[in-house]
Structures are given as C-alpha cells and as structure tokens.
C-alpha cells in the first residue's frame, strides 16, 4: 500500500527546521513534506496583505505542483491554524488532519492588540532578539527548560534568525484569523489532536474545544513536552503519529 503524503507545517516564529529530528522516522510511514511559510527559512517574503489564507494557498499550490489530489495536512500551532484555513477553503484536498499544540478559536481583542504591537516592535527594532527572550519561557515546557538547555538555545537561534518583516507579517495574519471550530465540525476525515502537557500557549481547554467538534477525532497527550512537542520530544511525537499514519496508508 502506498504511503500517504503528509504536509507538516511549522510553528511561529520558527521554521521547518523544527521538524529535523522527526523527519527521518516519519518518512518510514509517509511521504513527508515540511515547507517553510513565506518569509521563513528558505522561503521568500509574501507580497500580499497579511492573511493565513496566503500561506494556505501556497500549500495548495505545492500539492498541485506535486500532482497530489489529497494529503494528510497538519501543523504545530500556527501550522495548525493554516491547516484549518485549508480545511475551510479547500476541504477536498485534506484526507486527514493533524493538529499539534494549536487551537481553533480566534484571538481575543487583547491578544489581537498584543500581536499588532509585537509586529510594530520587531519592525522598529529590525531584530527578533527581544521576541526570542519574550517567547522562549512559554514556547518550551518546564521539563525542556530544566533539562535540555541545548534545545532552548536551538530554538532561540531559529527565532533570532527569523526575518522581522516575516514575523510582523505572520503576527498580522494570525491577528486576522477567524474562528475555525465550525470548519472542524464539517471536516469528515480522521483527525489527530496532539498536545504537550506542558504547553503554556495552547491550553488544555482549547484542545477540548477542538475535540468536541471533530467528527472522527483522536487525542494524544505528550507528558514532559511543551508547545513545540516535535522539538522537545521527537520520539514521542513520532510514536504518537505512527499508528495514525499507518492506518491511513492501509
Ligand atoms: C506558534 O507557536 O505558532 C504561536 O504560538 C502561534 C500563536 O502565536 O498563536
């Protein structure tokens, strides 16, 4: 039986390097594709008004280029928001969803205002160093902070190397995103919700909101991992995905 194509989308404000430690193991079970969002990693800055639909359209174009009609689509946090944007606009392109450390609700007014402030701040500073200092405490779980300083420094490096213009664009795009709970309720395929138990950004309650909408939802928690579970515990991330991907391939 052929392996499913799996498009796995990265979080903010990092890039597809966040999947370096899971790429090889996951490739035993799927044709893994881990693109960079426009402006991050090796991808050029978007030339459009900020909207996650721009990233979503890029993913659909990537499927078109590869001649792939349907794929497993998933992502971590912002990557999950984009997967849900694809589920809203192009549901027929998704055979199954993977939602890792993410949420389906839109921002509150305060969260939106904060994002727009951060966007202005990184542009004014011309640097993401302060953003890295501000985000790292919550981006990684307590276990990682206590026991894996190498992982903390690796993630810091990804954030500090991000282009401030891409970071500002992504913040403005996320601030404008709609609620996606209804899109999850109408998605008929299987879905896997993965959550690091020390995730301080996407709450446990948000996971319950998604689970209550999904028609064929499966839920796995990863103890000792935070918001970037694929980076913090790659082996557990792969182990959680393996049975899900294997079933899809059969
Ligand atoms: C992410 O990890 O992608 C971000 O925490 C998403 C967000 O800022 O909502």
Please characterize this protein's 3D structure:
This protein is 51% helix and 14% strand. The chain is α/β, with parallel strands linked by helices and 250 residues long. It has helices at residues 20-26, 52-66, 78-89, 109-125, 129-139, 142-147, 149-160, 164-175, 181-185, 204-213, 229-232, 234-249, and strands at 5-9, 31-33, 71-76, 94-100, 190-196, 216-222. Strands 2-1-3-4-5-6 form a six-stranded parallel β-sheet, with helices on both faces. It has a domain at 5-106 and 178-249: Rossmann fold. The radius of gyration is 17 Å and the shape is globular. It is built from twelve helices and six strands. β5 (190-196), α10 and β6 (216-222) form a beta-alpha-beta unit. 46% of the residues are buried.
Structure at a glance:
With 250 residues, the chain is of the alpha/beta class. It has helices at residues 20-26, 52-66, 78-89, 109-125, 129-139, 142-147, 149-160, 164-175, 181-185, 204-213, 229-232, 234-249; strands spanning 5-9, 31-33, 71-76, 94-100, 190-196, 216-222.
How do the strands and helices of this protein lay out in sequence?
Blueprint: E1 5-9, H1 20-26, E2 31-33, H2 52-66, E3 71-76, H3 78-89, E4 94-100, H4 109-125, H5 129-139, H6 142-147, H7 149-160, H8 164-175, H9 181-185, E5 190-196, H10 204-213, E6 216-222, H11 229-232, H12 234-249
Parallel strand pairs: 1-2, 1-3, 3-4, 4-5, 5-6
Helix pairs in contact: 1-12, 2-3, 4-8, 5-7
Bound molecules: D-malate.
């Amino acid at each position: 039986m052929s392996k499913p194509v799996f498009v796995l989308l990265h979080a903010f404000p990092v890039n597809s390097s966040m999947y370096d430690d899971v790429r090889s193991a996951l490739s035993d079970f799927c044709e893994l594709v881990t693109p960079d969002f426009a402006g991050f990693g090796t991808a050029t800055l978007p030339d459009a008004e900020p909207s996650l639909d721009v990233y979503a359209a890029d993913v659909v174009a990537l499927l078109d280029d590869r001649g792939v009609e349907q794929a497993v689509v998933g992502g971590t946090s912002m990557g999950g928001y984009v997967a849900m944007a694809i589920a809203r606009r192009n549901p027929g392109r998704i055979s199954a969803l993977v939602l890792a450390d993410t949420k389906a609700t839109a921002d509150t007014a305060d969260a939106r205002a904060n994002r727009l402030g951060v966007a202005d701040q990184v542009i004014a500073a011309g640097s993401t160093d302060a953003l890295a200092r501000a985000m790292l405490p919550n981006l990684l779980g307590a276990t990682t902070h206590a026991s894996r300083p190498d992982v903390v420094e690796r993630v810091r490096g990804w954030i500090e190397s991000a282009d401030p213009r891409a970071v500002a664009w992504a913040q403005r795009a996320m601030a404008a995103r709609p609620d996606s709970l209804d899109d999850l309720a109408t998605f008929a395929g299987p879905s896997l919700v993965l959550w690091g138990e020390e995730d301080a950004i996407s709450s446990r309650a948000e996971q319950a909101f998604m689970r209550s909408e999904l028609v064929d939802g499966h839920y796995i928690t990863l103890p000792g991992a935070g918001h970037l579970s694929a980076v913090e515990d790659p082996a557990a991330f792969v182990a959680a995905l393996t049975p899900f991907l294997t079933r899809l391939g059969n």
